[in-house]
Amino acid sequence: MTAVFALATSLLWGLADFGGGLLTRRLHALTVVVVSQTLAALVLGAIVLATGGWREAGPQLWFAVAAGVVGPAAMLCFYRALALGPMGVVSPLGSIGTVLVPLGVGFVAGERPGLLQAAGMVVAVIGVLLAGGPRVGGASVARQTVALTLVSALGFGAVMALIAEASTTLTGLFLALFVQRLCNVAVGGAALYVSVRRGTQALPEGGIGALRETLPALGFIGIADVAANGTYALAAQNGPVTMAAVLASLYPVVTALAALGVLKERMRAIQTAGASLALVGTVLLASGG
Fold first, then answer.
1. What helix, strand, coil percent values describe the chain, rounded to 5?
2. Residue 68 and residue 180 in contact, taking contact as beta carbons nearer than 8 Å
3. pLDDT confidence of residue 139
4. Which residues contact 244 (CB under 8 A, 6 or more apart)?
5. HSE on the CB side for 284, CA within 13 Å?
6. pLDDT tens digits for 23-71?
7. Taking a C-beta distance cutoff of 8 angstroms, is the pair 214, 26 a contact?
């Protein structure tokens, strides 16, 4: 089940990242973060009430609070990087932290993967990096884009590790994700308020009406991101964190395929090779579990 949940995480994150990057080309990045996370919080609040998740409240929720503080900064940097640079480069770079941080936590906790799993991790990570088709010998990516991407990578990795520690049951997970989203909205909202006070335009051209038209897409981004955090936590709880981290990091393959299907971006040979390696690594990790 670890492999299933982790691969579901990749699918959801890949689609959410593609949608977030696409919308950030039309809306302010903070607007995308705040509105999408607010819609996600509303859905999670209803789930917590329906399942009685509030009964799971305890000290472990501080991990969710910490994730809620780190998350908005990571999302802001990532969406901004996706808007500034090529998705095919930003997405795989952004996945580095989601592998390294949870892997480091797993190793510190005493997890040691077997030989087959170790080989799968190496192959999958190489595949993730190649799947974006780095522009070897081509136009360089702006330093600001690279810096934003690496900061977001470390932030996403920290969020994954913190949410995995925030709950031990399914209803507790709903509560932890709800708390995280409330903190996301509070931190992101405060940053948006400061940004607007400094003269930044928070609404798109067309005002509230134009923003209303994007609500379905923003809702999908927020809910997909929530679901991905949930499936990752379940993956980490049902098996080795190391396996969950690497399989969950395959989302750049999904982003690349979405860009191919929607934006008609052509897959270069290096992207095809990377996607193939990622799939081989997935099989090795799953068989090693």
1. 80, 0, 20
2. yes
3. 47
4. 2, 5, 6, 9, 102, 232, 235, 236
5. 21
6. 888 888 888 889 999 999 999 999 899 988 888 888 889 999 999 999 8
7. yes
> Residues 124, 246: contact at Cβ < 8 Å?
yes
Q: What is the mean pLDDT of residues 277-288?
A: 65
Q: Among candidates 42, 30, 12, which has minimal Cα distance to 177?
A: 42
Residue 162 CA to residue 181 CA, distance in Å, equals 13
pTM reported for the whole predicted model:
0.73
pLDDT at 141: 53
Token couple for 248: 């969950």
Q: Say which residues have a Cβ less than 8 Å from residue 42's Cβ, sequence separation at least 6.
A: none
List the Cα angle 195/200/201 in 5-degree steps: 125
Residues 6+ apart with CB under 8 A from 140: none
Nearest-angstrom CA–CA distance, 9 and 224:
9
Helix (H) / strand (E) element for 183: namely helix 170-197
**98 neighbors 245 (Cβ within 8 angstroms):** yes
Cβ atoms of 32 and 218 closer than 8 Å: yes
Q: Write the pLDDT tens digit of every residue in 189-238.
A: 998 899 888 887 877 777 788 788 889 999 999 899 888 877 887 887 77
- CA 197 vs CA 27, 76, 190, 200: distances in Å: 17, 18, 11, 7
Distance CA 19, CA 16 (A): 5
36-45, 58-67, 87-96, 156-165: least confident range: 87-96
Residues in the chain, total: 289
Looking at residue 56, what DSSP letter applies?
G
Tokens of 199: 């003269």
